[in-house]
Amino acid sequence: MPLRLLVTSDTHVPQRARALPPQLLDAVPHADVVVHAGDWTDLATLELLRTRARRLLAVHGNNDGPELRARLPEVAQAALDGVRLGVVHETGPARGRERRCAERFPDLDVLVFGHSHIPWDTTTETGLRLLNPGSPTDRRRQPACTYLTAEITGGRLAEVVLHRLPPRHRAAPARAHRPNRPRT
């Protein structure tokens, strides 16, 4: 039976959204492992995922304060059904990322990272798979907010799917009432 992963990062609650998107929360109970690559920005979101996830593998990010840094490592690693998976928030610029990550994490099969809010899925020359789920709350220059799901089957990562979330409906800003004035 495959091991199901839900992979997210850069949730930025409550700065970028009031809460995690319902589609992401609905997917949590279906995952065997939830992976979060940092930039939570609030403790409540960490506690929410800890209570709903069967297993949580997570790190802190550059926007996370002292409370989150005290509870989460900078780098996390786990062996998941024969796949050596690591999680880190930042990997530096896109240029040279594959080489840098392969050198820094030679004993991993998969490295999940965040920070850029840009989905990423590549494999280095050494065979290290690099995954960035984007952000479920802040699409930046991307067409949609995103997260990933994946399966581990037979000791290898398979079925990596990028999920695009529907646009959030934001409340319209309040407008000052201006009475109609007759034109003169």
From TrEMBL:
Group of enzyme by EC: hydrolase
Gene3D superfamilies: 3.60.21.10
Pfam families named in the record: Metallophos_2 (PF12850)
Metal-binding keyword on record: yes
The keyword Metal-binding belongs to this UniProt entry's keyword annotation: yes
Span of domain Calcineurin-like phosphoesterase: 4-153
EC code: 3.1.4.-
Cofactor(s) named in the record: a divalent metal cation
Keywords: Metal-binding
InterPro entries: Calcineurin-like_PHP_lpxH (IPR024654), Metallo-depent_PP-like (IPR029052), Phosphodiesterase_MJ0936/Vps29 (IPR000979)
UniProt similarity note: Belongs to the metallophosphoesterase superfamily. YfcE family.
PANTHER family: VACUOLAR SORTING PROTEIN VPS29
This protein's name: Phosphoesterase
Record organism: Streptomyces lunalinharesii
Lineage: Bacteria, Bacillati, Actinomycetota, Actinomycetes, Kitasatosporales
